[in-house]
Specification:
The protein is mostly helical. It has helices at 18-26, 48-67, 79-90, 103-118, 148-157, 196-201, 206-218, 224-227, 240-244, 250-261, 268-289, 311-319, 325-337, 342-355, 360-370, 376-387, 402-409, 414-419, 428-431, 439-445, 460-477, and strands spanning 4-8, 30-36, 73-76, 94-98, 122-126. It has 21 helices and five strands. The radius of gyration is 24 Å and the shape is globular. The model is unreliable at 478-482 (pLDDT under 50). Bound molecules: flavin-adenine dinucleotide (FAD).
């Protein structure tokens, strides 16, 4: 049998990899390939933090392949000619891959599939990265879901997702390996090394992913229902970048979670955790069915929203210098480790679009460049949710108060103290509102407002009124998609 190319993309693992299984079942040698072609991803080519992660993850995948006697062949350039050249060099008769759902990638993949097939090759995409294929999930009217709860109830009533596939113990190799570009040629790592915080925090690759899942299931999951909302504690799984790069499959997470509990009815923590995985599914479902939402609001009346332009305010937000400690802590956590706690993501996003009235697109772009888990489906869906212009969006009048959110979810101020060192010595009652502290308290904590730490760039009450007025123009102007 002629060799098969396995074209790796966001599925950087050997276990539960249906494309890899298809190649093995076909028989013949297997040639694992990764093609770096960011220009084919349209306006949403991977950002800087994602590139850093990808470099580490490709290295890890290469090592894993070596352990099963194989290699990862890297190429840089347009994907189709690269795959055609590799097929020619190796005599491959088939190309297998796992599907992605970003609009530009979907269009590119369809064109590649058609061209390869017309040249007589077997060309086949598989589902590795979602529990349920978006095209197969429909509501009773046969239409895509736009509200989460019915989507969740529908998914929960489906048969469980297929059991994950095992990693192959070995892979048949070609007679001669085609040449590979060195990993450095992809130029994924930053020229100036700003990644120290990320290196310390993360272990990219499927081994790191499995270890993180095991640690989570062994402890945190029991308290997940409450713990996931506390940014000062390690309450959630931190699996998002591993999931984005496909270093671990959602099916593996699903089945390990259910098996660990081993009971018909899951405890609350496990059930809430599975629900979060299904939020990820929902975001992909929406991106698949409403591909324009990466740039345009799903609720079209929001296209006329009176966003402001304010470069100074945007920069203050990006740098974590808004004067609101919870917002600033979140933005600095993001800058340092490429990740931010979900509760704080909601607060900083709400602050940008509601307190500052800056376009959600500006926030989505900044997240895109700085998150290690930047994911077009999740990022788009969540930004539109916070802005109130997406599916099942937060009610337009919900404006997170960064002070009360901080007092509720970071009552001792631990999260703020960790990420905003200039407030590290401020006692808990003022950690989220330093401007209310007496002068002697500030002096004792070494805080000089306006010098060591900024005054709030907007007053909460007046920003709230301004946002409600702007949002009311939209609320009056039309109905949502239902
Ligand atoms: P856990 O609580 O352990 O949840 C497990 C998994 O469920 C996560 O890894 C993630 O894959 C999924 N999940 C959890 N919450 C959500 C959610 N709200 N939407 C979709 N999937 C979810 N997540 C990304 O993966 N990439 C993004 O680019 C992204 N951008 C976001 C932007 C904004 C404005 C907001 C409010 C949220 C965003 N999220 C994004 C969702 C969420 O914040 C992260 O998935 C979560 O914080 C990751 O941490 P975790 O792995 O510990 O999550």
């Amino acid at each position: 049998m002629s060799p098969s190319l396995v074209w790796f993309r966001l599925d950087l693992r050997l276990d539960d990899n249906p494309a890899l299984r298809a190649a093995r079942q076909r028989g013949g040698p297997v040639v694992p390939v990764f093609v770096w072609a960011p220009h084919e991803e349209g306006a949403w080519a991977p950002g800087s933090a994602s590139r850093w992660w990808l470099h580490q993850s490709l290295h890890a995948l290469g090592e894993q392949l070596r352990r099963v006697g194989s290699r990862l062949v890297l190429r840089v350039g347009d994907t189709l000619p690269m795959l055609q050249a590799l097929a020619k060099e190796t005599g491959a008769g088939a190309v297998f891959w796992n599907r992605r759902y970003e609009p530009a990638v979907v269009a590119r993949d369809a064109a590649i599939e058609a061209t390869l097939r017309s040249a007589g090759l077997t060309a086949q995409g598989h589902n590795a990265n979602l529990l349920f294929e978006p095209s197969e999930v429909r509501n009773k009217q046969g239409r895509p879901f736009q509200v989460f709860t019915p989507f969740w109830n529908h998914c929960r009533a489906l048969p469980p997702p297929p059991t994950p596939l095992r990693a192959p113990p070995g892979l048949p190799v070609p007679g001669a390996w085609p040449p590979s570009a060195p990993l450095g040629e992809l130029e994924l790592e930053p020229a100036i090394d700003w990644a120290a915080g990320m290196r310390e925090e993360w272990s990219p690759g499927s081994v790191g992913a499995r270890e993180r899942l095991a640690r989570f299931l062994a402890g945190r999951i029991g308290r997940y229902a409450e713990g996931r909302d506390m940014p000062g504690r390690e309450g959630s799984s931190s699996l998002s970048p591993h999931l984005h790069f496909g270093e671990i499959s959602p099916r593996t997470i699903w089945h390990r979670t259910c098996r660990k509990e081993g009971v018909a009815e899951l405890p609350q923590g496990a059930e809430v955790f599975l629900k979060e995985l299904v939020w990820r599914e929902f975001a992909h479902h929406l991106l698949s069915h409403f591909p324009d939402t990466t740039d345009a609001p799903l609720r079209t009346e929001f296209a006329a929203f009176p966003w402001r332009r304010d470069a100074h305010a945007l920069r203050a937000w990006q740098r974590g210098r808004t004067g609101y400690p919870l917002v600033d802590a979140g933005m600095r956590q993001l800058w340092s480790i490429g990740w931010m706690h979900n509760r704080v993501r909601m607060v900083v996003a709400s602050f940008l679009v509601k307190h500052l009235l800056l376009p959600w697109h500006d926030g989505a772009r900044w997240f895109w460049d700085t998150l290690v888990d930047a994911d077009l489906a999740n990022n788009t869906f969540n930004w539109q949710w916070v802005a109130g212009c997406g599916a099942d969006a937060a009610p337009y009048f919900r404006i997170f108060n960064p002070v009360s959110q901080g007092e509720r979810f970071d009552a001792e101020g631990d999260y703020v103290r960790r990420w905003v060192p200039e407030l590290a010595r401020l006692p808990a009652p003022w950690a989220h509102k330093p401007w209310e502290a007496e002068d002697d308290v500030l002096a004792a904590a070494g805080v000089r407002l306006g010098e060591t730490y900024p005054y709030p760039i907007v007053d909460h009450a007046s920003a709230r009124t301004r946002a409600l007025e702007a949002l009311a123009t939209i609320a009056r102007s039309g109905e949502g998609p239902g």
